Amino acid sequence: MSAKEMFKKLGYEERTETSSMACIKSYINYKKLKIIYFDYDKRIDVGNTMISFDLLQAINKQCEELGWLDE
Questions:
Q1: 3-class DSSP state for residue 60?
Q2: Strand locations in the chain, DSSP E?
């Protein structure tokens, strides 16, 4: 399962436009108004979000797909 599919299962949608030029990917959960940003400097911003195990797995999968775990 891809990161996009994992996030979708958790109620998140991939956003194509972001407010930051430093952002590679972002996902938003409109029902809970939560946004996750994956930035070019390999930082992940989840705001004040409690991270469930399923969300952590989706974040790790996205990092893998971005090649961040290869270094």
A1: helix
A2: 13-15, 23-29, 34-39, 44-45
